[in-house]
């Protein structure tokens, strides 16, 4: 054999088929370069290329942080939310979350021992300032004061485009209200905290002083001497201002300024300056002493709103200087006359302070010994009395039921407390405590604990479930007059079933009651729905509108009978609808039966027929008329028959008429008559009449106009709403008929134009009703009764005469209608509904749509109060610390009933009593409320969903707003806001979603069970099967994941199964069964001539697959280059292996015999001319050399030796 001989494709095919072809020896061999064209040379890469400069290596200038942090303090007496028990809690937390969302700042709250709040605010400067303003207005109690400055100075306080005012409000965290230009008042109202009020007043007075054209004097005096100048409670400075007539502005203690500004006439200013300097000169050498007072006692020295300091100053003339709250200093400085310092020091230490320690059984008393003993004895007496007549009990209730025990707005818990005369403390959510403490009379404690435990037990066994049922099935489930749902409710009496409002377009039906009963009811209703889906076939039947009432029958007898006998649902269109389609729903065969029944009723009642009339197509357009006016008038006159003209331009003359036989015949005659008139002597006339007269001309049921048509033979066509000219009436017919009809119509119109005037008496108290809302009631009367004009006497005229003008019939009808309205008004009452003003806009709805709906539905009038902005309005003024000087006007407190509602909260309704009561309920139902739901923080991201899709879906579904706390708060509380009738459903839906997510978590945990099975790697391919068929089947059947070891794994015999424990075990057993079966198999090798292997394998392995499938064995042929190319392995059950071997040997014998036992001659193989080893000194490539024939991926040593294959590139 030649060393370069290679099998050609043809010879290879001959080898596979066992045939030997004759050699074609005389053909010329191809040239080497033609057979093996050289590869293109790779272009040399340019040298010396430099790496591009790295832009990131350049220095980046560090940026300074723009985030700042400030701490604000809210004392206990100024906290808006002080309830420690926090019933209906979460308001404070919700406010903070809302402030963070609104401003972008980050808030952290902490509570001091004295129950004061410390709030740390972080963020950008602008955000922090906005947050500070929100904190002051929403977390601190708001006081108010007024400051008077000249009216001409107001604009300087406002500034350009209001910028100065906004800056001032932001800086002082107050709300500043400046009178309108047309308001003569010069008082500016400020609302906010005490500290903010002082700062704002100071800033406003400074602005005014700067703008004051009179003398302005600024005196710099050390801050420590300001109390001596102002005097106790500002009395001294007030006296100076009254005496001198000048205005003196002393910066408040919270403003760190030394400048005192005096304004007024020059003489007044000079006198005031002299008085101030005299006081300063007398006090600048005052004696000072410093004493150490515990930081915790400073608040007692200061007193509520600084009253104690003012009291000491008034009694002793000594100023007491307290270090600021953010200072760690405990040094208190007393400044004054030496002989008064001792008395002042005694006053500082004279108070006994009582402090109740949260969470501990002790009360701390601090003060002088003599006073301490007296207070202690009084406290002990109180404690002894309480212990002797009171008891307490702690009960354990799951925290998730706490909110239900509290009830909406604390209703449940307040009822229990009032009924049993006890105090009940339910721990807030953040404590996550089960213990509820009850204190009070022993018997009341026992009864209250019993009632609370019963409520909790009932709630524990109760659940709510939402069923998703398509809205189209709701009416079928409810049944006629609620008969079907009544049966369901009777079957499950303990379950409350709530269907959504049809207008809500919701598919959620809510079940509520004991757990087991809810589940049973749920399954029962699910089965009902499944039956309905099966019976969900529907078809539409066109029935003439006028015959719908006949199909319904008296009292619905006919339609009810058809529904019952065919077991279908039959829906008819509304009376005011133009649709003629009746929809039948049910099983297909039942729907067909109902359709036949309905059509037969129509046929019997109306004798519906279809007729074709031949009319020349050239007349079709004239018969149809402009916008179908002529043909529409014929259809209306002939009982609503359907007339169908062919498409314009088709050249077809046939016109189709369908309807009751008599009406079809009548329509046919009219069409043919009209066509004949058009062809011969058709005449048309037009006349005009006011649109409001048309209904009187037509008459009730068309009676008047029918008389004219019958008497004259002319057709009279009135305009439709789509026509441009609403006054135009068209008369069509012969010339004589048209003339007569025109004459009669003109007489009728003339009679309507003959206006009469009538007078009726209407009590003046009712006049406003008729003329209100720009005379809407009068406009409605005019539209309904032919344009009657109703004139009421002018406002202020003491007259009850009302004038009506119009056609006589119209006037009489309008007069009758007005008397009916007056009768309703006489029975009218006025009712008040108290709803906080902040909800009014929500109740009104977009463009007042909701309130208009209530007004229309209940026929009442609703009046909302004037809107009042800002705190303090609509209620008693707040007196600020008793301060009253020339610039700070005190608002005197008037005796006000604290239970009386604010005027701005009162909505007034007028109408009949029963209608007003219904309207009040409707208004209250529109008030949005907020509830909170505790949801584990780790579930929040699943509730929100991808890009908020989950929470948006819930908000759309339940028509509420759901607010999830920011991740950094780590809060479990989710707030839901919306209408009261939506909240429960939304809350239950959210809790149901939480249950689903919890169940999914548990399910994932159960599905993560793992077990391993040890299987010899040689069996792995058998377990996997062809293209993974076997293992895929096991995975699908047992719903598990099966993982085989990777090639690099140490444990090649370990198969891992993951899923539910019982399913993983079943999958393991299935794999083990396969392994057991494989272990029973044997493997035998036979010698099979390599020349017949290809024939046995067949094209694309078809032959070998057929043998393996037939004998249920596995065949393994040797790989190319195997030591024994004739060795074949057969694996399977012993008896099947023997049969397969016999079959293979028979095939070998058959295929070898076709070769005839002849030895193949040596083939020339593939020969080329002009090869490199033939034309040069190179040797032929060595096929056994790894250098000449390298393996893919194997490293090759570099060599300079030339290759017969051309230059090397590796």
UniProtKB/TrEMBL annotation:
Subcellular location(s) of the protein: Cytoplasm; Nucleus
GO molecular function: mRNA binding
Coiled coil ranges: 731-758
Annotated region (Disordered), positions in chain: 15-51, 1169-1210
InterPro entries: KH_dom (IPR004087), KH_dom_type_1 (IPR004088), KH_dom_type_1_sf (IPR036612), KH_Vigilin_N (IPR057778)
One example of a Gene Ontology biological process annotation: lipid transport
Phosphoprotein keyword on record: yes
Top-level division of the source organism's lineage: Eukaryota
Keywords linked to the UniProt accession: Acetylation, Cholesterol metabolism, Coiled coil, Cytoplasm, HDL, Lipid metabolism, Lipid transport, Nucleus, Phosphoprotein, Repeat, RNA-binding, Steroid metabolism, Sterol metabolism, Transport
Free-text function comment from the UniProt entry: Appears to play a role in cell sterol metabolism. It may function to protect cells from over-accumulation of cholesterol.
Name used for this protein in its record: Vigilin
Source species: Oncorhynchus tshawytscha (Chinook salmon)
Gene of this entry: hdlbpa
